[in-house]
Amino acid sequence: MDVALALAWLRASAGAVAAESDRLTRLDSAIGDGDHGVNMNRGFAAVVAALDATPPDAVGALFVKAGGTLISKVGGASGPLYGSALRALGKALPPGPEVELAALAGGLEAGLEAVRKLGGAEPGDKTIVDAYRPALDAFEEAVAGGADLAGAAAAAARAADEGARATTAMQARKGRASYLGERSIGHQDPGATSTALIFKALADVTA
Amino acid sequence: MDVALALAWLRASAGAVAAESDRLTRLDSAIGDGDHGVNMNRGFAAVVAALDATPPDAVGALFVKAGGTLISKVGGASGPLYGSALRALGKALPPGPEVELAALAGGLEAGLEAVRKLGGAEPGDKTIVDAYRPALDAFEEAVAGGADLAGAAAAAARAADEGARATTAMQARKGRASYLGERSIGHQDPGATSTALIFKALADVTA
Amino acid sequence: MKKFINDPADVVAEALAGLAAAHPDDLRVDVSEQYIARADAPRGGKVALVSGGGSGHEPLHGGFVGTGMLDAACPGEVFTSPVPDQILAATKAVDGGAGVVHVVKNYTGDVMNFQLAAELAADEGIAVETVLVDDDVAVENSTWTAGRRGTGATLLVEKIAGARAEEGGKLAEVAAIGREVNTASASFAYALTAGTTPAAGRPGFDLPEDEIEVGVGIHGEPGRRREKLRPARELVRSALDAILEAKPVNDGDQVIVLVNGLGGTPLLELYLVYGEVATVLAERGVRVARRLVGNYVTSLDMAGMSLTVTRVTDEMIRLWDAPVRTPGLRWGA
Amino acid sequence: MKKFINDPADVVAEALAGLAAAHPDDLRVDVSEQYIARADAPRGGKVALVSGGGSGHEPLHGGFVGTGMLDAACPGEVFTSPVPDQILAATKAVDGGAGVVHVVKNYTGDVMNFQLAAELAADEGIAVETVLVDDDVAVENSTWTAGRRGTGATLLVEKIAGARAEEGGKLAEVAAIGREVNTASASFAYALTAGTTPAAGRPGFDLPEDEIEVGVGIHGEPGRRREKLRPARELVRSALDAILEAKPVNDGDQVIVLVNGLGGTPLLELYLVYGEVATVLAERGVRVARRLVGNYVTSLDMAGMSLTVTRVTDEMIRLWDAPVRTPGLRWGA
Ligand SMILES: Nc1ncnc2c1ncn2[C@@H]1O[C@H](COP(=O)(O)OP(=O)(O)O)[C@@H](O)[C@H]1O
Ligand SMILES: Nc1ncnc2c1ncn2[C@@H]1O[C@H](COP(=O)(O)OP(=O)(O)O)[C@@H](O)[C@H]1O
Ligand SMILES: [Mg+2]
Ligand SMILES: [Mg+2]
Ligand SMILES: [Mg+2]
Ligand SMILES: [Mg+2]
């Protein structure tokens, strides 16, 4: 992955989040406070603006900047979580304008670790983690099986989408949805849904 | 009219106001503040209770007491208006347990005069006066034509009802409805409507 | 209708009991005569202020009873003026021998009931002066109406006249400054939704999702006309146009501004509205000496707001700043 | 959606501008960094209190900035916690060298953003203590949830800890009394309707005409369950059962009670509710030392109310009574 592709990914994520903003907000109205689409949209629009203004010349720096921008602009639960994930991803990457597939996989692992550390969510808690974990597993499995970035990203996107769908049956144990108790069952998690959009964006730009 | 008939009239008025309370309130919601039915109901229920507790032995005293009770219990515009009307009616009657038809007509005239004095409304202003004035004219005309109380009351009830209906076309110049300007046109006046109910009650108990 | 009540018929009495329980040291509530008085009333030699009107406008008037404002308030049924008995009882209870000022909002019912009460009080030898509040400039043609309604300016009249009474003003003086404040005031209101009275159980009117009522009062009555909803900055400009046309304010004049919510409007929106008001008044060279933003003269749960602008003298500002200690308005004490 | 706003995206910034214009002498609003500070901050040697959270809860928190309460507040977007940059900027702006207490309501977003900000502040050498508020006992099972939410008790924590800071309390002392107040508090809320966020443009949930949400927070999120509407006296009893079970109050203990409207509930109903609360607490031998009735910790235009009961020491009462001068809470000054 080079700087241009990383930028394309984040642009595509911004586009997807904007296009699906209403849906994310609707999902969040059902079991949260109805702002997830607005939050993600505000954040990714700011990321694109920040990167356009002063494009970093290293992939790692680009993700660190993107993460920092999310932290500075989003607020709520999703801002620090996605922001920390992207910062950790960026920090884990080796310097330079291009990174290998294995390094990217490691970076994504660091990103998930940051989410887990900050939010303390386990798989099954009905959060971002429930799309991110299976996506990363599929990504790593594809890489281990010899896939290229396009193949790994496609596998990750599929797994993330399945993971997001699977949250419908879960009772939330983290975030606002947890206050609803059993009433959180039967609704897809907004954060897991936005995670699936982001992995789909990666698949789209690499396909 | 004797004490028993006067009491029957007020009782019948209370019954009519209770039965039509929702309609009066609905009319008042359209061009006022939506409390006319509740106000009238509270007032006439109190009148009946007060008269039941200590029934006066003179017709005049009975109306004075009824009027005073309305003033003490209703509030709003209708309380002082109807209360003053009944008080004036009672005060204008000669003493004793029974009064002549002519005296009653004079008393009703005094009642209307009290409404006019307190509220300053002219015919056409879309108020109580627009039912009371034609009712009284019809009553007096019938009496002059030799009718008995039943006949005069029936004529008055018909005229009051027509008068109330005619308020629909009027633009209010007094009371809350006046604030609506031209929007008050097209709705029947609640106060004129309750006046018609009271004259109908008189026709009913004398029929 | 969903409300935190028991029987709709008991709302006013039960709310009064709650008010009494909530302010045991400051207020004395007579539940049977239905009035709220300062705990320390009557105060010998002090002119007393009594106001009242329908319930549903809280904190007006009961929430404005206390040091530096009203001596007593008479709450009627919801949106229904109090009865003369109540007003008379309150007047007698707080009269300290120096006379009583009745602050009356200009509605047919309030005017008549207070008038009857004033006559009864006079019969008992109490000197009563009535200050009629009629600040609502949405009511345009007074020959075709019962005259302008009393709305937001009532708060200013009660605060400023109340301060004058507290510092020892005589009956005529207290009434005079109250009238001056009223004359110097103009208000205009918009409603986004109707309020629901407990007794009626349904909203006073229905409004489509994109329409507002322009020029409403505080009793859930419809306004002069309906309009499409417009941005706050345009609504503020139109309201201030009406206000400043009715009561012109000259370059350099000082005003007190009240941005008042009608009960269902979040403070977030009221502050946004105040920002627009400040901008427009600054453009026109009007100096805002003091301002108040919040839900003070309400119409149950109506989503709506009113603007009141009062041209004030230095003396009025001094009285506005004087200490006040009531459930609904408090500073300096 | 009908609101007094311009562009939904600008609501928070424009309301902030209005707040600044409305309180020119008492508040300093940094519109670009998005925080509200006391005009006289930083005060050398005084422990500073900083709070914040999503907008839409006004007067919380911005309305509680001033003498005797908060030194600064950071409003996020509507129902969205503020960002670390904002919190850091406010923390630096009001630090008087004696350290800063962050008052944080226990929501995932608030906790994380304040945590990141506290780390950044520590990097810059500012001592920060965090007081987490989690009083909402409608959230029952903490292993299955993000823990109890912070709601009405936030006002008490900010008032009492703010008074302690004002009189010269040290960082650890101010934080300690804040935590004690939180520990001694329990809250429970009902919603009759959902609020509407300007950005979403529609109510957060729909409720049938005869149902209520039981155990809601202050972000328009649905509660634990739906129930049929019941009379106020029954709702009060159920809420107090939950509150007193979670935080038992013994015979003769003193409490402060907050009857709080969620934004769209008329004061008339809140006073009626307080009357019921007073009755139930009296039955149980609980002494109500102080009480507050009004819309303080709101959820936009939600029709709803919350009850908070805090078991207080004499020291807490003394600090509660201490002068406070903020847009939303004021006495003794
Ligand atoms: N502790 C957590 N760990 C991981 N993800 C979480 C956690 N808490 C919440 N989330 C995610 O955040 C999403 C909500 O984000 P958003 O609506 O933007 O923030 P907020 O809940 O503060 O309004 C949830 O759908 C969930 O996926
Ligand atoms: N000045 C007046 N003279 C005669 N009748 C009046 C006057 N003002 C109002 N009314 C009558 O009072 C009625 C309203 O009574 P009600 O709803 O009980 O009182 P309020 O208007 O105070 O709520 C109106 O429909 C009208 O007929
Ligand atoms: Mg959310
Ligand atoms: Mg009426
Ligand atoms: Mg009325
Ligand atoms: Mg949020």
TrEMBL record, chains A, B:
Keywords: Kinase, Transferase
Any single biological process term in GO: glycerol catabolic process
InterPro entries cross-referenced by the UniProt entry: DhaK_L_YcgS (IPR012737), DhaL_dom (IPR004007), DhaL_dom_sf (IPR036117), Dihydroxyacetone_Kinase (IPR050861)
Domain of life: Bacteria
One Gene Ontology term, aspect cellular component: cytosol
Gene3D superfamilies to which the protein is assigned, alphabetical: 1.25.40.340
Pfam families: Dak2
Stretches assigned to the DhaL domain: 4-204
Keyword Kinase tagged: yes
Keyword DNA-binding: no
GO MF, one annotated term: glycerone kinase activity
PANTHER family per record: TRIOKINASE/FMN CYCLASE, TRIOKINASE_FMN CYCLASE
Protein name: Dihydroxyacetone kinase subunit L
From TrEMBL, chains C, D:
SUPFAM superfamilies named among the record's database cross-references: DAK1/DegV-like
Keyword field: Glycerol metabolism, Kinase, Transferase
Swiss-Prot/TrEMBL GO biological process terms: glycerol catabolic process
Pfam family, one: Dak1
GO cellular component, one term: cytosol
Protein name: phosphoenolpyruvate--glycerone phosphotransferase
Domain DhaK: 7-331
Organism: Actinoplanes aureus
